Amino acid sequence: MSKTLIYAHRGASNLAPENTMPAFQLACESGAEGIEIDVQLTKDRVPVIIHDENVRRTTNGTGLVQEYTCEQIKKLDAGSWYSTKFSDCSIVTLDEFLCWFKTLPMLLNLELKTNVIEYKGIERLVYDALQSHQMLDRTVISSFNFNSIKTINEIDPHVQTAFLTSKKRHNLVKFAKKLGTTSLHVRYRLLDKKLVKDCHKNKLSLRVYTINRPADMNRCFKLKCDAIFTDCPYEAVEYRTQIQK
Ligand code: G3P
Ligand code: MG
């Protein structure tokens, strides 16, 4: 089996404000194989990259993403909360991101943030954007909301999808297979040898989040998880190199 891949979680989010262009650029320079992004919809139904449903934590604005038009949300400062050095950062639209990302030899994990707000129709909008940028073959679409996974599978059964979970669930692998997903993305505390074995026996990829401690990285590499999501891609790449020496 090949090495455990590294996805920069919200970009290199330990070095720059999460889900912004500087975080994505650093992720690309880190040697990580992939980037994970979180996608929600504005009031005028533009997919934008932001983790929370509310802009309060990561911008100078207040209120829900869905209460802003794209033009309005682009005016927010998405960097100063992290450091004044990043005060010129704005929220990135999915289209802006894909225009930049598609020229790079990297993998994408696009997380649909549909577990709190449904954002009806987001799956089709995101699918069309990925298709128009010819990104479908190196993207895995994930969600905590299994209905989003079902919808993507209905739109195109060949797309790689992942059911995301942080909860222990009886027969998780069976559930994922029934859902028709190609992978499972699980919180670290759910990881054990048996889960890795069950996933691989059932031809499911297993990716684990969010792995920032060296000891946890090493465990994921040794257990042969297919990928980890980390806020610290530079460190993860280094630890992986060390362990493989
Ligand atoms: O996709 C892995 C991870 O990003 C899921 O949780 O809350 O960080 O988006 P969260
Ligand atoms: Mg995420």
Features:
binds magnesium ion, single chain, alpha/beta, globular, 245 residues
Provide a descriptive summary of the structure in words.
With about 240 residues, the protein is an alpha/beta fold. It has a domain at about 15-185: TIM Barrel, CATH 3.20.20. The protein is built from 9 helices and 10 strands. Helix 8 (about 215-220) packs across helix 9. The radius of gyration is 17 Å and the shape is globular. It starts with a strand and ends with a helix. SN-glycerol-3-phosphate binds near residues 142 and 209.
Bound molecules: SN-glycerol-3-phosphate, magnesium ion
Output the number of helix runs.
Answer: 9
Order of helices and strands: EHEEHEHEHEHEHEHEHEH
CATH topology of the domain at 16-183: TIM Barrel
Distance between the termini: 17 Å
Structural class: alpha/beta
Report on the biggest sheet: 8 strands, parallel, barrel
CATH architectural label of the domain at 16-183: Alpha-Beta Barrel
What name goes with the CATH superfamily of the domain at 16-183? Phosphatidylinositol (PI) phosphodiesterase
Find the count of extended strands (DSSP E, 2+ residues). 10
Unreliable stretches:
none
Mean pLDDT across residues = 97
- Can you tell me the overall shape? globular
DSSP strand (E) fraction?
15-25%
Radius of gyration: 17 Å
Look at the structure and give the CATH class of the domain at 16-183: Alpha Beta
Helix content: 25-40%
Pfam families: GDPD (PF03009)
Protein name: Glycerophosphodiester phosphodiesterase
Domain GP-PDE: 4-240
